[in-house]
Write a structure and sequence with these properties.
Keywords: Signal. This is Desulfoferrodoxin. It comes from Shewanella intestini. The protein is α+β, with helices and mostly antiparallel strands. The chain has one helix and eight strands; from the N terminus they run αββββββββ. It has a domain of 89 residues: Immunoglobulin-like. The N and C termini lie far apart (40 Å).
Length: 136
């Protein structure tokens, strides 16, 4: 239980750091994120070949934004958390998953317009991933 608490605290710290990095104008594009800290389709680092199951996708229908990571969920290997963040660093929502959840899907009601959104996904084995920018 102690390890799980430490892991969750670390995950929250990483999420906050990524939100800050995304809000920094010089790091706004996913291809300019620091190497080895935040991973993306363009910057897979040591996890090359893992991007398909770790980079979250964003789907927008009206004011509903769905974030999905196409990743299996098991006790040994699962998506821990999603966040939805604006280009300004405003966290619009976050969702913690359990290894017993069937899928890594989270939905948010977003009233914000004319913003660029990023989704993040944290895997318990393959670190922190960010989506491509999505304009709403």
């Amino acid at each position: 239980m102690q390890n799980r608490r430490h892991f969750l605290k670390s995950s929250l710290f990483v999420s906050g750091g990524a939100a800050l990095a995304i809000s920094t104008p010089s790091l706004a594009a996913t291809n300019s994120l620091p190497n080895g800290i935040v991973y993306s389709t363009e910057k897979t680092g040591k996890w090359a070949g893992k991007e398909k199951g770790h980079v979250p996708t964003i789907t927008v229908k009206g004011n509903q934004v769905t974030v999905q990571t196409f990743h299996p969920m098991s006790a040994e290997h699962y998506i821990v958390k999603h966040t939805l963040v604006t280009e300004d660093g405003e966290v619009l929502g976050e969702h913690l998953f359990a290894s017993t959840d069937k899928a890594a899907i989270s939905t948010y009601t977003v009233e914000t317009k004319n913003k660029t959104l990023f989704a993040t996904s944290f895997c318990n084995q393959h670190d922190f991933w960010v989506s491509k920018a999505t304009k709403i």
